[in-house]
Amino acid sequence: MRPFTIGDVLCAARYLLLFEPGSRHAAARSLVQRATAADRWRAQRGRAHRCWGNGTLMAAAGLAPLPPTPPLGDPSFLDALCVMLGTLRDKAPQPDAQEMQRRAVGSSSSRRAATSSPHSSQ
Fold first, then answer.
1. Residue 49 phi, psi (nearest 5)
2. Is the pTM of this model over 0.85?
3. Is residue 49 classed as helix, strand or coil in its secondary structure?
4. Which residues of 6-20 are buried (b: 16+ CB within 10 A; e: fewer)?
5. How far apart are CA 118 and CA 48, in angstroms?
6. H helix intervals, the chain
7. pLDDT recorded at residue 47
8. What is the pLDDT of residues 23-79, one digit of tens each?
9. How confident is the model at residue 64, as a pLDDT?
10. Are 105 and 111 in contact (CB under 8 A)?
């Protein structure tokens, strides 16, 4: 799937409004799978997939007639947005725990200076 924008997420949430609340998680996963497959198709063949678009969420979602964008405060739309964002979060690559620790604390050489004090026996 190509990198997504807020426009992609809003369009995908409108697409999810076509489904009953209990079916939205499956529909969101399916939408991401179609966008991913379309992106692979585009990369291999140099053109958009005829059914699923160019690999963006907006293209994959926009193939169905979408309802108009409801007000942002609409509870059903907020639910659809949460489902879509949660699906995208779950799909995102998770950083390696050791790399996260290294970024949060720094390398061991920088930690020694940070933890040494006149009262330390290091």
1. -70, 135
2. no
3. strand
4. eebbbbbbbbbbebe
5. 65
6. 6-16, 24-45, 57-61, 75-91, 97-105, 108-115
7. 80
8. 999 999 999 999 988 888 888 888 877 777 888 899 889 877 899 999 999 999 999
9. 76
10. yes
pLDDT at position 101: 61
Residues 6+ apart with CB under 8 A from 41: 48, 49, 52, 55
Sort residue 69 into left (φ over 0), alpha (ψ -120 to 50) or beta. beta
Phi (first) and psi of residue 66, to 5 degrees: -90, 150
Phi and psi, residue 92, nearest 5°: -65, 140
- The confidence score (pLDDT) of residue 114 equals 52
Rg (alpha carbons) of the chain, rounded to whole number: 21
Residue 77 and residue 17 in contact, taking contact as beta carbons nearer than 8 Å: yes
Output the pLDDT for position 41.
80
Closest by CA position to 25, among listed 13, 10, 37, 36: 13
